[in-house]
């Protein structure tokens, strides 16, 4: 069969965003701060350009410098003990400065992280332990600050790799900062960080659930000559999201493996043959051999390949309340209309079958707040399914406990509390979206909640 090729996919190629005209216009002398702060994007760049007419987009970021800048921002932003007002003038000024500076850095960062790291990764990556695994973040930069302070920058975890299970954006006010920070980490140390794709790292989703509105709010109407910088920033993020891997397999000699992804087990209904047999990891890998899922968009026109890969990001376990209903027909998967109908609920037998055929003993996934809000994680399917969620004060209104998972060298899996609700309570107001009084705020809050 001939490989389906959707010409729409070409639009997702990052380099196609950057026409020659765009390149020519984005020179250093043409950059201007959005809100008139002192700003110096040069401070994160590797070298001085040989001449002033070199396009800013052809420059290179020094990831360590950008990392240090983001960390020092977080320290001041969240640790001003005498000034706990989340909406204080100090913080507004800090935001203006940060956004002015990041504005021109973001397209560069996205391009560089694709070229130096993401495009070299297969769609299902393999990793050895030791690992720390974190669930959904959803724009909560304070949680990232906490994770950085206690784990990423803690020498005790120097030999650990970090897996994030996706859903970095939407529903939280600092989605831009979260992605910039994680991409910076990825660029700084590509082997130490595994950033998986969540269903919100899909343009069709994040244009509806807050991220696009947030980018437009932060970067306002910003043009350099005829180039719409705000649009470039939003598209740059989504281009990079298209290159995120969909799952990770944790392997260690002498042990069964662990499957990590955002949603869960893809349904076998999508297989051309052997519909009762679960997907093998080799088959899933083969699906993507010609298809880096440049547009993992579920739709009536999407190919079966796209849909099967898409389900890794979207599927949920069958809700507990319906499991004992006599009406159920002993199927492995049930179509999930709650999430738009292009994905499935998977049953415990589906989990067992997927694990058996792939020599897995456990699936670790995010995606669902409701199974983890009391302990930060939830165990299901007789210990074969672990859901973890790492965004505290979810949507700025919840008071949930968050979790993370440790997988050590002997493949011992330990889910733990990341932050108790009392620990994160003082930062609760930082996860509200109404940061500034702005005519657009209400509209943005509406899409967020
Ligand atoms: Mn999700």
From TrEMBL:
<dbReference type="InterPro" id="IPR004843">
    <property type="entry name" value="Calcineurin-like_PHP"/>
</dbReference>
<dbReference type="GO" id="GO:0004722">
    <property type="term" value="F:protein serine/threonine phosphatase activity"/>
</dbReference>
<protein>
    <recommendedName>
        <fullName>Serine/threonine-protein phosphatase</fullName>
        <ecNumber>3.1.3.16</ecNumber>
    </recommendedName>
</protein>
<dbReference type="InterPro" id="IPR050341">
    <property type="entry name" value="PP1_catalytic_subunit"/>
</dbReference>
<feature type="domain" description="Serine/threonine specific protein phosphatases">
    <location>
        <begin position="196"/>
        <end position="201"/>
    </location>
</feature>
<dbReference type="InterPro" id="IPR006186">
    <property type="entry name" value="Ser/Thr-sp_prot-phosphatase"/>
</dbReference>
<dbReference type="InterPro" id="IPR029052">
    <property type="entry name" value="Metallo-depent_PP-like"/>
</dbReference>
<keyword id="KW-0378">Hydrolase</keyword>
<comment type="similarity">
    <text>Belongs to the PPP phosphatase family.</text>
</comment>
<dbReference type="Pfam" id="PF00149">
    <property type="entry name" value="Metallophos"/>
</dbReference>
């Amino acid at each position: 069969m001939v490989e389906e090729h959707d010409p729409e996919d070409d639009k997702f190629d990052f380099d196609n965003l950057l026409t020659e005209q765009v390149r020519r216009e984005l020179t250093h002398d043409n950059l201007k701060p959005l809100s008139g702060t002192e700003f110096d994007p040069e401070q994160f760049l590797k070298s001085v350009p040989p001449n002033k007419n070199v396009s800013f987009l052809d420059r290179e970021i020094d990831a360590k410098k950008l990392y240090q800048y983001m960390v020092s921002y977080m320290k001041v932003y969240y640790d001003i003990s005498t000034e706990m007002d989340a909406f204080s003038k100090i913080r507004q000024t800090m935001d203006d400065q940060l956004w002015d500076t990041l504005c021109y850095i973001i397209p560069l960062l996205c391009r560089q992280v694709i070229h130096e790291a993401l495009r070299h990764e297969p769609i299902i990556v393999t990793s050895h332990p030791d690992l720390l695994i974190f669930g959904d973040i959803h724009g909560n930069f304070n949680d990232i600050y906490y994770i950085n302070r206690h784990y990423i920058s803690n020498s005790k975890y120097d030999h650990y790799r970090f897996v994030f299970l996706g859903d970095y954006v939407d529903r939280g006010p600092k989605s831009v900062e979260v992605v910039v920070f994680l991409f910076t980490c990825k660029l700084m140390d590509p082997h130490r960080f595994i950033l998986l794709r969540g269903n919100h790292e899909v343009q069709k989703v994040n244009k509806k659930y807050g991220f696009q509105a947030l980018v437009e709010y932060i970067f306002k109407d910003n043009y350099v000559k005829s180039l719409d910088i705000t649009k470039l920033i939003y598209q740059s993020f989504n281009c990079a999201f298209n290159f995120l891997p969909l799952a990770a397999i944790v392997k260690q000699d002498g042990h069964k493996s662990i499957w990590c992804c955002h949603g869960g087990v893809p349904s076998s209904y999508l297989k051309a043959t052997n519909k009762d047999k679960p997907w093998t990891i080799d088959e899933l890998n083969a699906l993507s051999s010609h298809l880096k899922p440049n547009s993992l968009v579920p739709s009536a026109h999407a190919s079966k390949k796209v849909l099967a890969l898409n389900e890794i990001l979207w599927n949920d376990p069958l809700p507990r309340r319906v499991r004992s209903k006599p009406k159920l027909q002993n199927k492995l998967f049930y179509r999930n209309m709650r999430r738009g109908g292009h994905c499935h609920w998977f049953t415990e037998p589906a989990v067992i079958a997927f694990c058996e055929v792939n020599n897995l003993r456990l699936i670790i996934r995010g995606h669902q707040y409701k199974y983890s809000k009391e302990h930060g994680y939830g165990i299901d399917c007789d210990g074969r399914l672990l859901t973890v969620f790492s965004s505290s004060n979810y949507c700025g209104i919840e008071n949930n406990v968050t979790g993370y998972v440790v997988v050590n060298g002997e493949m011992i899996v330990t889910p733990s509390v990341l932050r108790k609700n009392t620990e994160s309570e003082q930062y609760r107001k930082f996860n509200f979206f109404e940061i500034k009084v702005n005519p657009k705020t209400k509209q943005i809050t509406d899409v967020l909640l």
